[in-house]
């Protein structure tokens, strides 16, 4: 945030009324920006105005009151001030305005509009709609996003950073933990994923995250929209459940058996799908899910 501080003056502008609030040196109340930057640190001494002076302090008897120019910057400021009416006591309060994406300054602040102006917009990645979609679960989509970027603190990464940690996977204890192993080379994660994926989409081959993403992004022509949505939701819920179980086994004494993990995934998916009832008489997402899953699990 502190790195963005120099940009503040380009977003915040002061519309001078009576000049009793606007800071002469620090606020952007002219098109020259903050005058302390335009004139320099010697400005207060040359203009005989304190650093904490208000705009009204530069006015006397309704006119600008500034000493003779002693630098080109001060001369440029004085010329510019001739185009600005001095603040008057009856002109109302000073008003601070924020720049919108349209370039117009407004009394209303928009965090989204500000971010859109600050961010460097990149082209959408191919897997974006697999992570972020209407039926997503934010906490789960966030973890899936980190998995795709390979940014989770898996043990292989911790070891590469010089940390003294065990290398084995907490889920199977027989292989080194890594992103590829957890999602989904690990026998436990394979079993959990294939239990649901085979019933929803017929997927039965050894799952690897890149191939799963490709299948969801470019499903067979015969795949229904409901199946694609269920697979997207299932992927992030399964990834989230595995990462949570991994952490529980490391930091607590909890060791959830596979049949209980299946119940966790099933309950999470069902709870989310309850929010999307059928609107046109066709089967809802939850009904489509129930058509794939047999109980008890």
Automatic annotation (TrEMBL):
Residues covered by the Reverse transcriptase zinc-binding domain: 109-193
Identify this protein by name.
Reverse transcriptase zinc-binding domain-containing protein
- Organism, per UniProt? Microthlaspi erraticum
């Amino acid at each position: 945030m502190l790195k963005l501080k120099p940009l503040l003056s380009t977003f915040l502008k002061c519309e001078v009324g009576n000049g009793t609030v606007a800071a002469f040196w620090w606020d952007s109340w002219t098109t020259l920006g903050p005058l302390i930057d335009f004139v320099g640190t010697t400005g207060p001494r040359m203009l005989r105005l304190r650093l904490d002076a208000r705009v009204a302090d530069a006015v006397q008897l309704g006119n600008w009151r500034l000493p003779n120019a002693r630098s080109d910057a001060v001369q440029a400021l004085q010329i510019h001030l001739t185009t600005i009416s001095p603040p008057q006591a009856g002109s109302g309060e000073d008003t601070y305005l924020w720049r919108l994406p349209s370039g117009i300054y407004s009394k209303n602040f928009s965090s989204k509009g500000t971010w859109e102006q600050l961010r460097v917009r990149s082209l959408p990645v191919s897997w974006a709609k697999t992570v972020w979609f209407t039926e997503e679960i934010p906490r789960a989509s966030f973890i899936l996003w980190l998995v795709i970027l390979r940014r989770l603190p898996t043990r292989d990464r911790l070891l590469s950073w010089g940390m003294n940690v065990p290398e084995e996977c907490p889920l199977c204890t027989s292989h080194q933990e890594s992103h590829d192993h957890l999602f989904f080379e690990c026998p436990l994660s394979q079993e959990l994923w294939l239990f649901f994926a085979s019933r929803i989409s017929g997927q039965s081959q050894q799952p690897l995250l890149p191939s799963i993403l490709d299948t969801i992004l470019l499903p067979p022509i015969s795949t229904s929209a409901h199946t694609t949505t269920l697979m997207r939701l299932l992927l992030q819920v399964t990834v989230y459940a595995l990462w949570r179980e991994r952490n529980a086994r490391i930091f607590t004494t909890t060791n959830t058996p596979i049949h209980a993990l299946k119940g966790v995934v099933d309950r999470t998916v069902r709870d989310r799908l309850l929010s999307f009832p059928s609107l046109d008489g066709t089967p809802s997402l939850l009904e489509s899910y129930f058509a794939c899953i047999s109980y008890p699990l």
